[in-house]
Amino acid sequence: MLYHATGKVVPETAYDRDLALDFIKGMLIILVIVGHLIQYILYQNEGFWDSACFKWIYMFHMPLFMAISGYLSCRALLVKSFTQAVGDRATQLLVPMLFWCSLLESLKFTVFPRSTDAPGTVLQFLNEFVGTYWFVWAAFICFILTKTISIFNRWSPWALFVSVILVVLAPLTFSIFPLIKYMYPFFCLGFLFAQSRERWTSIMRSHRLFLIMSASIAALMCFLAWRNDTYVYNNLALVQDLQSAKNVLLMFLGSAAASAVMIEVLLRSWNIGHLNRVVRFIAAKLGPSTLVLYFVQGTVFRLMDSIQYGELWDPTTRFAAASSLGTMIVAVALAVRWSVGDIPYLSQLMLGVPPRSRR
């Protein structure tokens, strides 16, 4: 049993979905695509760190996504055994990731053939296998870390807090470890909120205006102070000296504040516009399709790493190309979900869900 955004307690089934939460997920996956379009099309992989729009999106979109993942994982973490919980999560996340990664490599081999014995081929494949869909790996590893703590300490918030400190301060900078260090605190926050939702909701109602204003001011200050070295991709979440400590602290504080502001903005948007057709489309179609949308956009943008394009495009052409590509990504992902959603093996393989979970 889980709390929904309405405040009621309802059973968690495939057909009892929280449309407000689906709307938030749908908006976040749109922002993931927009962020990549800014990087690849509008800025052509040069200077995008300085884009105000890119900066704002990257302050919160993945941290908030991970917090929602932790929130939605509450039942599996609390109720299921370790083996069952990890097995189910691997089936949901890793199986479709293997499919999409295989598809990506097949497309790259077909379109951009290379010698299989070329130096670094195996290393390059492993790097793409882990890095292309890094968020899936991060969500899976955060889930395992949190579940493992239950073996030694039955959901003490202090045990989670200690694990967060240890993970954040771990001097690991290779592969996607910096991203896992960045995401893990937000996963734990989402999980802890789900455990004590009633209490936290009561606190927020009592101090709503103060909390919103404080988070907004903090987010604005962090936005103004945010620099290239504040991105986890550049600072690698590594504390070496005072300056790197400031960068990492600003990254976490800024992401937390921006996430708090945006969850309020998105919930307000849903409450005001939930009868609007576009809003309901985002909630009903994009929200339940975030995983396949993530895989499709990851595949498309990874392929674009190997393509020379648009060097002489003017801004208008770039914007038109970005709009067209974004629309195509959404259309392909929804078409995939619609076409294989009722086919047992393909649904599990490509979408990570059994056919009965499709609405």
Characterization of this structure:
The chain is mainly alpha-helical and 359 residues long. 74% of the residues lie in helices and 1% in strands. The protein has 16 helices and two strands. The chain has helices at residues 19-42, 52-72, 74-79, 82-111, 121-131, 134-152, 157-169, 177-195, 197-206, 208-225, 232-235, 242-273, 277-286, 290-304, 315-340, 344-351, and strands at residues 2-3, 9-10. Strands 1-2 form a two-stranded antiparallel ribbon. A hairpin with a 5-residue loop joins strand 1 and strand 2. Helix 2 (52-72) packs parallel to helix 6 (134-152), helix 4 (82-111) packs across helix 16 and helix 10 crosses helix 12. The longest helix has 32 residues, at 242-273. It starts with a strand and ends in an 8-residue tail after the last helix.
Summarize, please.
The chain has 359 residues and is mainly alpha-helical. It is built from 16 helices and 2 strands. The protein has a two-stranded antiparallel sheet with strand order 1-2.
How would you state the average pLDDT, rounded? Answer: 89
What is the strand tally? 2
Biggest sheet: strands, sense, closure? 2 strands, antiparallel
Helix % is: over 70%
The number of distinct helices, counting runs of at least 4 residues, comes to 16
Q: How many whole angstroms does the radius of gyration measure?
A: 20 Å
The percent range for strand residues is under 5%
Give the low-confidence spans: 1-15
| Structural shape | globular
